[in-house]
Design brief:
It catalyses: acetate + ATP = acetyl phosphate + ADP. Its cofactor is Mg(2+); Mn(2+). Keywords: ATP-binding, Cytoplasm, Kinase, Magnesium, Metal-binding, Nucleotide-binding, Transferase. It holds the Pfam family Acetate_kinase. It is found in: Cytoplasm. With about 400 residues, the chain is an alpha/beta fold. The protein has two domains: about 1-145, Nucleotidyltransferase, domain 5, CATH 3.30.420; about 195-385, Nucleotidyltransferase, domain 5 (2-Layer Sandwich). It is about 40% helix and about 20% strand. It has helices spanning about 60-70, 105-115, 125-135, 155-160, 165-170, 180-195, 245-255, 260-270, 270-275, 280-290, 295-315, 330-335, 335-345, 355-360, 385-400; strands spanning about 1-10, 15-20, 25-30, 40-45, 50-55, 85-90, 100-105, 140-145, 200-210, 210-220, 220-225, 325, 365, 375-380. The strands form two sheets. It has an eight-stranded mixed beta sheet, sandwiched between helices. Strand 4 and strand 5 form a beta hairpin. Helix 1 (about 60-70) crosses helix 3 (about 125-135). The longest helix is centred in the C-terminal third of the chain and has 24 residues, at about 295-315. The chain is globular, with a radius of gyration of 21 Å. The mean pLDDT is about 95.
């Protein structure tokens, strides 16, 4: 089975084609700046690379361009689009309506649209990608894989807020968690790397990218995670504030800021970018630190402190943990962040091997010392493969 995986953002479209017989990537690409004056596409199939700058007006137009590349004699992997067996879509949120991946129909589309109120930056472009794919390939089965699914094993004591219960009953206001596809993949891979039964494993998964979240996983099931009703809660992130006193937005509103301005501040102008005043990219922050930039150092300190604090709380609810896994852009590629976080965790018996932390950067592997009570690992995440696996399972089950 050959599956096209689509991750549609507000102005981007990321894609891969995976052969599920051997889980090999046949091609992958990224269309960026959709709807802007100058869009771009980067595409490769293992033997040839294609790049182009052009104007792409919308996601349907972007997907048409991708479809042409999929069947291009030099850059593609298909002779005909009919060789695509299924399409898997990353979708942020569907509340409690769908708690696992599902074959897309009109009911699913309506539910994604209804839950855009919880994911206004993600659900609409996710849906745009789905509708464009349906229009261009109406006979190909399509599956929605939700970022929230893996976290649905959280008990009520973990997902409820201290609000009147009627708000949960009426509006389904609760903590949902995100990056679930990544956390699920990391959990499976960590168990393999450790040679342990996943049901006997207690681990903390740290997905650290521009968006960042932690998950406490026991026996292969999430018991808590740092993001909440939306991806804003939890860790300090690239541009998101993470946890703040709930009255901060109210205070800003009373100072004359509009609702949209407050939303933009908390989601795009806060976090590492807001504290440093420089960038949301940790590479820029660490470069500035070496040049003596005090606010860059402060941003780094706040960022790593919050991660360590959450790990400590998750170690408590897990009653100890076997492994700590770093993944995603920062987690996989930044030894300084990993070292700083692990330096806080000595009370749990965490000991990093500094040489391995450097030498296995970007590569992945076990980076803790032999006498560490907790195994610390770097594992490259692969959300696209996880989406493809779910898609394959659902489509095959439908045919039975």
């Amino acid at each position: 089975m050959k599956i096209l995986v689509i991750n549609s953002g507000s102005s981007s479209l990321k894609y891969q084609v995976i052969n599920m017989e051997n889980e090999k990537i046949l091609l992958k690409g990224l269309v960026e700046r959709i709807g802007e004056k100058k869009s771009s596409i980067k595409h490769e199939n293992g033997t040839s690379k294609y790049t182009e700058e052009l104007k792409i007006t919308n996601h349907e137009e972007a997907l048409k361009k991708v479809m042409n590349l999929l069947i291009d004699p030099q850059y593609g992997c298909f002779k005909s689009l009919s060789e695509i067996d299924a399409i898997g879509h990353r979708v942020l949120h569907c509340g409690e309506k769908y708690v696992s991946s599902v074959l897309i129909d009109d009911n699913v589309i309506n539910a994604i649209e209804e839950h855009a109120v919880f994911g206004p930056l993600h659900n609409p472009p996710n849906l745009t990608g789905i509708l464009a794919a349906q229009k261009l390939m109406p006979d190909v089965p399509q599956v929605a894989v939700f970022d929230t699914s893996f976290h649905q094993t959280m008990p009520p004591k973990a997902f409820l807020y201290g609000l009147p219960y009627e708000f949960y009953e009426k509006y389904k206001i609760r903590r949902y968690g995100f990056h679930g596809t990544s956390h699920k993949y990391i959990t499976i891979e960590a168990a393999k790397m450790l040679g342990k039964d996943i049901k006997e494993l207690k681990l903390i998964s740290a997905h650290l990218g521009n968006g960042a979240s932690l998950a406490a996983v026991k026996g292969g099931k999430v018991v808590d995670t740092s993001m909440g009703l939306t991806p804003l809660e939890g860790l300090v992130m690239g541009g998101r504030s993470g946890d703040v006193d709930a009255t901060v937005p109210l205070f800003l509103l009373r100072q004359g800021y509009s609702i949209d301005e407050v939303d933009n501040i908390l989601n795009k102008k806060s976090g590492v970018y807001g504290i440093s005043g420089i960038s949301n990219d940790m590479r820029d922050i660490e470069k500035a630190i070496k040049e003596g930039h005090k606010r860059a150092q402060l941003a780094f300190d706040v960022y790593t402190y919050r991660i360590a604090k959450y790990i400590g709380s998750y170690a408590t609810i897990l009653n100890g943990f076997d492994a700590l896994v770093f993944t995603a852009g920062v987690g996989e590629n930044d030894p300084e962040v990993r070292k700083t976080v692990c330096d806080y965790l000595g009370i749990f018996g965490v000991k990093l091997d500094d040489e391995k932390n450097i030498s296995l950067n970007r590569i992945g592997g076990i980076i803790s010392s032999d006498d560490s009570k907790v195994t610390v690992m770097v594992i490259k995440t692969n959300e696209e493969l996880m989406i493809a696996r779910d898609t394959k399972e659902i489509v095959e089950n439908q045919k039975k």
